[in-house]
Design brief:
The complex is a heterodimer of chains A (351) and B (226). Chain A has two domains: 222 residues, 3-Layer(aba) Sandwich (Rossmann fold); 116 residues, RNA polymerase II/Efflux pump adaptor protein, barrel-sandwich hybrid domain (OB fold (Dihydrolipoamide Acetyltransferase, E2P)). Helix content of chain A is 21%, strand content 36%. Chain A contains nine helices and 22 strands. In chain A, helix 4 runs antiparallel to helix 5. The mean pLDDT of chain A is 89. Chain B is 77% helix and 0% strand. Chain B starts with 5 loop residues before the first helix and ends with a helix. The model of chain B has no long low-confidence stretch (mean pLDDT 91). The chains are: A alpha+beta (351), B mainly alpha (226). Chains A and B meet through helix 2 and strand 7 of A and helix 6 and helix 7 of B.
Chain lengths: 351, 226
């Protein structure tokens, strides 16, 4: 997918002025509330009219103020998953899901509904009433409805923010599966760095209606120290759990780690705050932390009185955040061997 | 015992005919005006809103007189309609037009409130799912404001059954032709010994209005249950 955008739109007290070109099929638009993220989404999907500029998706011009081209939302083939699922309340789940599908010419229907329902785990929800669905279920139905409308691009406008804290990330594997299986490019709009890192490869950072940064999602998280990124969160993919005394042992690359939290699935994602990792120069004789990992320092970056140390543990990577004084005492530089101590309870399950 | 004369029965039929025709003819316009007032963002909307609501606050006799001026043989519309041989004044058509104009604001108000309650996001979602404007209007806006449209229709229908002032001026009080229930009651009360007949028609009017209320409430409940 190649998306070329140059847009200007003025409101009473806010002006959006952006120009970007995207080729990644998993892009994020990141920024605080009121920065213009949702306006970009409305302009791309045709729900709002820009003052000037152009939007080109592949070889189709969706909007061009000079050439007076403006395709209507239903002609743009851009699907949108909104913050709230917005399932039509006067229709059954089934009618909701097929709303867009019925409006696609039969020869253009490329997605098999039954296969999609299985990927999204919604088969058993089809006979239910819209009002009986949970937040996560509604969002999965909304995604199915959008995917079946055969879009060339899907915009996701903070799809997790309306879900309750405890369950919001459970939908991520479904989202990932859909985008992996069907190869539909997507733009993920959010103000959460964690969501950006899980869902996107490339991120546009927008502030006060202007693009401030354009780079890899992981780089944004590693090297940013403001905007709620005071500490880096390690995302750790772990295999299946096996009981270890009264704790649980997980496979992590070519080593294993001990956690207090159990997990039933074969694939699990945990978060680990970089400030919860203690570094030792040598292997401590005894410690309360259950995980002592031998690591090599691969990179160091600092800001003010904080330092992030990138560590290679076997074939996996971790980032620990410490203070400059500790760096001096431990003699840390690239290539130094250290021991990272992590408590079994420091890992928090995402899904 | 309370009995209805053939003239009374004809008045009841005429009332129903006028109320039904006026409501059905006004409904598409009512939906269009309701949509305009609920969704369109243009300058001067307040003026349009005021014009639509005017018959609600004006004395019906004033509305009737203005209609008479417009539809009379010397009026702008009257002259035009005369070319096609259509006579509005002192005819059933006149009664329908008078009822439609007087009851219209009630219908628009109800539809407008119903449409304003429709979350615009549903319309946006349907558009991004490939529905054109009309498609979205018929599959999202109309069903979601269906209850308001029905209640607007029943309000207008009930109002039309009681319409007197504008009708008597534009359509006159011709038994068997333009004499509806209120006009017949008026005639009975102005002749000696007509009280009994007037009361009978009052009872018919009460039962008709009550039936409409019950039917409209019943439909509303069915709608709510989906």
């Amino acid at each position: 997918m190649q998306l070329e955008v140059e847009l200007k739109k003025s409101f009473k007290d806010f002006t959006l002025d952006v120009a970007f070109s995207l080729s990644s099929s998993r892009t994020g638009i990141f920024g605080p509330s009121g920065s213009g993220k949702s306006t970009i989404m409305n302009l791309l999907s045709g729900l709002e009219l820009p003052d000037s500029g152009h939007i080109r998706l592949g070889d189709t011009v969706l909007f061009d103020s000079k050439r007076k081209i403006n395709l209507k939302p239903d002609q743009r083939n851009i699907g949108v998953v909104f913050q709230h699922a917005h399932l039509f309340p006067h229709m059954s789940v089934k009618r909701n899901i097929f709303y867009g599908y019925k409006r696609v010419k039969p020869e253009n229907r490329q997605i098999d509904p039954d296969g999609l329902f299985e990927v999204l785990g919604v088969t058993q929800l089809l006979s239910r009433d819209v009002s009986t669905l949970s937040g996560g279920e509604r969002q999965r139905i909304a995604l199915a409805r959008t995917v079946l409308s055969n879009p060339r691009l899907i915009l996701m406008d903070e799809p997790l923010s309306a879900l309750d804290e405890g369950h919001k990330f459970q939908i991520i594997p479904y989202l990932k599966n859909v985008f992996n299986n069907y190869g539909i490019p997507m733009i993920f709009i959010s103000h959460s760095v964690l969501e950006m890192r899980m869902m996107t490869d490339e991120v546009l950072v927008i502030e006060r209606g202007r693009i401030q940064q354009h780079g890899a999602a992981e780089e944004l998280a590693k090297k940013s120290w403001n905007r709620g990124l005071e500490s880096y969160v390690n995302l750790i993919n772990l295999g299946g759990a096996s009981p270890y005394k009264d704790l649980f042992r997980y496979k992590w690359g070519d080593t294993s780690i001990i956690l207090t939290e159990p997990a039933e699935s074969e694939e699990n994602l945990f978060e680990l705050d970089s400030r919860d990792i203690l570094l030792f120069k040598r292997h401590p004789e005894a410690t309360s932390a259950r995980n002592l990992l031998k690591c090599t320092v691969t990179d160091i970056y600092s800001c003010g009185n904080r330092v992030r140390v990138e560590l290679a543990c076997g074939n996996e990577h971790l980032i620990a955040q410490i203070v400059p004084e500790s760096v001096c005492e431990l003699g840390i530089k690239e290539g130094t061997m250290v021991v990272a101590a992590i408590k079994a309870s420091a890992f928090k399950k995402i899904f | 015992m309370l009995t209805l004369s053939p003239q009374d029965i004809s008045a009841v039929w005429l009332s129903l005919k006028v109320a039904c025709s006026a409501t059905l003819i006004a409904t598409p316009f009512g939906i269009a005006c309701g949509y305009f007032l609920a969704f369109c963002k243009i300058r001067g909307k307040v003026v349009v809103e005021g014009l639509i609501s005017l018959p609600l606050v004006l004395p019906p006799v004033v509305v009737g007189y203005l209609l008479l001026l417009s539809f009379g043989s010397n009026g702008i519309i009257g002259k035009f309609l005369n070319l096609f041989g259509i006579q509005v004044v002192f005819s059933l058509t006149g009664a329908v037009i008078a009822s439609a104009v007087v009851g219209f604001p009630l219908m628009v108000r109800s539809i407008r409130i119903g449409m304003e309650a429709v979350d615009q996001s549903y319309i946006s979602v349907s558009r991004t799912l490939g529905a054109g404007w009309w498609d979205s209007f018929f599959t999202i806006v109309l069903p979601l404001s269906g209850r308001a449209i029905l209640s607007g229709m029943s309000l207008m229908f009930a109002r039309n059954l009681g319409e007197f002032g504008a009708t008597v001026i534009l359509a006159g009080n011709i038994p068997g032709m333009t004499q509806t229930i209120p006009l017949a009651i008026y005639e009975y009360t102005s002749v000696p010994g007509g009280d009994r007949m007037a009361l009978t028609l009052c009872l018919v009017s009460i039962s008709l209005s009550f039936t409409i209320l019950l039917v409209s409430e019943g439909i509303n409940r069915r709608f709510r249950r989906g």
